[in-house]
Amino acid sequence: MVKKMKNKVGILQKVFAAVTLLFVFIFFSACGLYFFERGAQPKIFGSIPDALWYIIQIMTTIGYTDISPLTLGGKLICIVAEIVGILIGVACLFVIIIGTLRLGTFLRRTRVKKTNS
Amino acid sequence: MLNNVNDERTDLQKKLDDIIEGPVVSGIIQFLILASAVIFVLETEESFVKYEPYFVILDWVFLALFTVEYILRVFIAPVKREFIFSFFGIVDLLAILPALVLIPGFRVLRVLRFLRIFRIFKATRFVLAVDRMIDALGKVKRELLALVILCSLFVYLAACGIYVFEKDVQPDKFGSIPDAMWWAIVSLTTIGYGDVFPVTPGGKIFTALVALVGVGLIAIPSGLLASVLTEARVEDEMLEEDNGEENEK
Fold first, then answer.
1. Could you tell me the pTM of the whole model?
2. In angstroms, what separates the C-alpha of B137 from chain A's closest C-alpha?
3. pLDDT value for A8
4. ipTM, 2 decimals?
């Protein structure tokens, strides 16, 4: 029972760490994007919250508007953010797939044990 | 001889059957189906308008060939009614019928011809794959239903939320909750047409949260299906291995 509790806390901590990491990444990308783009497109990237909004659109692959970065630095940051966003989606898929598969083997093992005993 | 006790077809019918189901004729027919589909698409392209007469001629050639093939298939079928009302029989008929009886607008209905490509799935190497997919879908039926309900609920809540944030600033785009649902679906599927998007800070923060959670939520069904398909494949392979071991013994 105690072991189980420990496991649960561990998972929560891991999730918390991952989410924090994600937000830190989003924050730094937005700051970088703002730094590079504010000169070229002051109306669109006029503040860090504006850049944050754009980075979120990119990472979730929604992309509402025709806005795109013009400077090399801004483009690089957006490329990295895009890749990270897609990788997070793929990682979610992997977690679900592996989770279901392990559940399947777990169920089968218990079934075998039951029939053996 | 014993195998053919129930086969009351004439030699001619059997020979024709062998030819039509043979690899050469099947290949040609599949090529014709594909060509027909490609021409159907090209006709709508403006730069191909000058070839219109050739397309029309080709079209009649396709129609004639498909009609001949259909008549032959009916002719060689052991039980004619069974073939005519089978899935592929109906598809074959649908592919030629609109043009034959000159239904107005039959040129659009030619798209039905492409249904015939399903005949490819009769090949044995695809039968296993299709069976596996149907099995997998059946296995996760309940989970998928639960996810559909969950996603609908999520879309509903997201639409209500954004409506509260945006209705005053953009009454033309977020004027009602059904309008907001359009936004929710475009956002959660990550299409993002760009016709409606939030402009208030509250709406943007809300969108960011909804998108980060919702995009994952929408991805669950694909993960689920992938895992079930993998499992079905692994099980098949294990079964084959077991059978192999038993045969060795």
1. 0.72
2. 14
3. 61
4. 0.74
